[in-house]
Amino acid sequence: MTSETSYRPLPLADRRDLTDAEGLVDVRQYLDLMRTRHSIRDYSNRPVPQEIITTAIAAAGTAPSGANQQPWFFAAISDPELKAQIREAAEAEEEKFYSGRAGDAWLAALEPIGTGVEKPHLTQAPWLIVIFAQRYGVAPDGTRQKHYYVPESVGIATGILITALHAAGLYCLTHTPNPMGFLNQTLDRPEHEKPVMILAVGHATEDATVPAAANIKKPLEEIMALYQAQTSEKDT
């Protein structure tokens, strides 16, 4: 977290000054890349170098955040025993979820995705990344420091992380057992950090599948509206 206590403007660094044509080419290439992103549950045993994981997390750490408080923490786990503990605890919560906690409507919504109680990807994937949201910060003297827009900030950072992992040729699956307090105990994280998501990360098996329903994306006109100034005949 930044230690700056007063506003000090700096010249904009790392400027990207593209022409409109260059920008359109780049953003179309980015769209093409993201259209190849898929969530999977079938992970190969091919190892993933630690440096790829840490570099992706470093990219996530560049995300904007409320008051620049950077209220996130990422626990990257490759230890098989820890992954097994997480899977066991997650499946225990999932058993309760599918046995009545979720309700019929929620279960019906999940049916096309093919999810269930068993979560083998939590031990098959070479890496798990647990994302924590820091409810507040803790100064060196132990005093609390308020954090602002925590869910929004952590959500942006998580999106950047998923994109970075995809750019590295990896696949991931977002997993949110509820409740997730067991992750604090398993990973020895402080109580002011709230676990919000587990990402299973790795390479896909040769016979990996994705749910057909997951390939159905809303068309652009359903997720966007344009609000532009009206042009007059003189303008045209």
The CATH class of the domain at 47-204 turns out to be: Alpha Beta
- Subunit arrangement of the protein: single chain
* Average pLDDT taken over every residue: 93
Q: Just name the CATH architecture of the domain at 47-204.
A: 3-Layer(aba) Sandwich
How much of the sequence lies in strands comes to 5-15%
Give the SSE string.
HHEHHHEEEHEHEH
Structural class: alpha+beta
Got a strand count?
6
Largest sheet report: 4 strands, antiparallel
The general outline is: globular
Q: How much helix is in the residues?
A: 25-40%
How many helix segments?
8
InterPro entries: Nitroreductase, Nitroreductase-like, Nitroreductase/BluB
Protein name: Nitroreductase family protein
Domain Nitroreductase: 35-203
Keywords: Flavoprotein, FMN, Oxidoreductase
Describe this structure in words.
- InterPro entries: Nitroreductase, Nitroreductase-like, Nitroreductase/BluB.
- This is Nitroreductase family protein.
- It comes from Roseovarius phycicola.
- Keywords: Flavoprotein, FMN, Oxidoreductase.
- The chain is built from eight helices and six strands, in the order ααβαααβββαβαβα.
- It has about 240 residues and is of the alpha+beta class.
- The chain has a domain at about 45-205: NADH Oxidase.
- The strands form two sheets. Strands 1-2-6-5 form a four-stranded antiparallel beta sheet.
- A hairpin with a 5-residue loop joins β3 (about 135-140) and β4.
- α2 runs antiparallel to α6 (about 150-165).
